[in-house]
Amino acid sequence: MKNTQKIILGIIGVIIIAIIGIWGFGQNKSSIVNNNQNISINQNTNSGAVNNQEITIQTSLQIDRQDGSTVKVFSVKMEKDSTALAQLQKAAADNNIIIEIKTESFGSYVDSLDGLKGGTDGKYWMYSVNGKTAEVGADQYKLAEGDVAEWKFTK
Question: Which pTM does this prediction carry?
Answer without folding.
Answer: 0.64
